[in-house]
Amino acid sequence: MDFSRYGAPSKEWLEFVVENPAAAQDGLSNNDHATQLRATVNSARGTASKNMMSQSGLIDTVDIQTLPIPSRGNHYIPLRRYSSSDTQESRRGLVYFHGGGFLFGSEETDDYLCATMANTLGVIVLSVIYRHTPDWQHPSQHEDAHDALAYIKANALTLGIDEGVGVLGISAGAGLAAATTLRDLDIPEDRFIRGVVLSIPWLIHVDNYPFELFAEPRFSSQQQCRDAPVIPWARLKMFSDLLHADKSDPQLNVALAPNESLRSFPRTAILVAGMDPLRDDGLVLATKLQALGVPTSVSVFPGLPHGFRRWASLPATRSFDSRMLECIRWTLGLDECPKEDFEDWYVYGDE
């Protein structure tokens, strides 16, 4: 296995950092002060989301409601519900798990993305605000994800959802989405998840990396992209260490799950960034699912770092966001879903 052809910095990225040199340093510092870093990142993301909500007009066209829902351990977590204001009829549901290495994220940080999806796709978006490190260690995040899905399933009609849900996760949230999907498969006659979108997913514990799957260890994304911006090794290792988890825990290694467990996976779309140490987490899983005959769509954005869509002026950002919406349409089987040959490898820049 060798996907290293996607890892060299793209011309688009190199030109972008000439004009925006700070982007090349993103994630390279402050990796030993988790609580302070979380406060800084959450504040910046929350402010950016609030501004975009106002500028886009979504603040007037999307209804947002936060519901406290029970999770194990006698506590409650926020479930944030987004729906277009123009109709109250039941719709397809999309359960969303935010990214942030299990460290970042709050009720407001993903408002703009979730409101955009609700408004553009006409679905009910339910964002699960799971517990974060360092206050809560593994498996708290997975417990919240599983309990939230159980609540949504039991209260689907009240929440305005019909015909099951799709699941979308970004980065660490994609790990939650994948693990929650596996758990949903345990009861074949009562499956609730209809499709899955895993965006720049973290699907393998960093200390349990399957180097033996690659032509050479240096071709793996963990080694090839070790010093890439946004989540260089120091940042990624910090995220992982804060979990205090067993490196072989199946919930943190969905890409390495046995074929028998993956065989019944629902329709799945996976999007990866080429210059991302997590690139091969997604591509290992995609390769396995396709070999098992699971309907699988793969989208690769070569030469770009993890989470590059934070930079709105990058041309690839608009393409990535558009592709992610298409993936949701495809996995949920919405009326405006893409062409039949969507089950293929899309590579940005090859159009």
UniProtKB/TrEMBL annotation:
Ranges that cross the membrane: none
InterPro entries: AB_hydrolase_3, AB_hydrolase_fold, GDXG_lipolytic_enzyme
Keyword Metal-binding: no
Entry-linked PANTHER family: AB HYDROLASE SUPERFAMILY PROTEIN C4A8.06C
Classification of source organism: Eukaryota, Fungi, Dikarya, Ascomycota, Pezizomycotina
Top-rank taxon: Eukaryota
Listed GO MF terms: hydrolase activity
Name listed for the protein in its UniProt record: Alpha/beta hydrolase fold-3 domain-containing protein
Domain Alpha/beta hydrolase fold-3: 94-308
Annotated keywords: Hydrolase
